Amino acid sequence: MIHFYYGPGPNPAKIALFLAETGMAFEAIPVDTYRGAQHDPSFRAINPNSKVPALVDTDGPQGSPAILFDSTAILLYLAEKTGQFLGTAQDRPQLLSWLMFVATGLGPFSGQAVHFQHAAPEGLDYAVHRYRREAERHYQILNDHLEGRSFIVGDHYTIVDMSAWGWLDRAVRVMKGEDRPLERWPNLSRFIDIMNARPAVDRAHAIMNGHAFKTVMDQDARQAMYPTSFSSASKGTAS
User: GST C-terminal domain spans which residues (predicted)?
Assistant: First the structure.
């Protein structure tokens, strides 16, 4: 049995989409990050980094439990376990390259753009500009790559598309102030339309909406989400 630990964010959404696409049996276990549930000892035993998603497969390799965290690791594990959404053998080098492009570039810079535009204290203009521009740069790279393509790797829908979708689906948060944030990148806009037309996307959203998470970013939520940053700020020191 797959135990899927999730919260309301783009990285858990990627895993929800994979599960929806494959129809794998799983239990969705909510982790209310705004309430600090990611710091509970029981969850930190699964993910010492105190972030979602995480996954426990009670039927792991050779019948032993497998514990995973980080959305990229989970996508690779599930794809290899099921033999689905990995493309062809010839695609493997590009699949790994673009998967890591999302994992180390598009995702983190988008996440930091969201943080500094929506959650950080005001007055950090350099950080806002830095991460917003880097997110835009990664958008442009992927937009150029998708010219004449339906999918990111080869001719097949893969876990790379799922991973990119998780963040591009939140473009309105990344590109704060833009009602149609992908309009500047027509290939990304087309890609998202292709992705959102898949029936599994609706099922993934249903998984993600299966719990009423706390949504108010009050002081308690800031402390839970960014404990080192906001505890240091409250003491007047930089983190």
Answer: 88-228
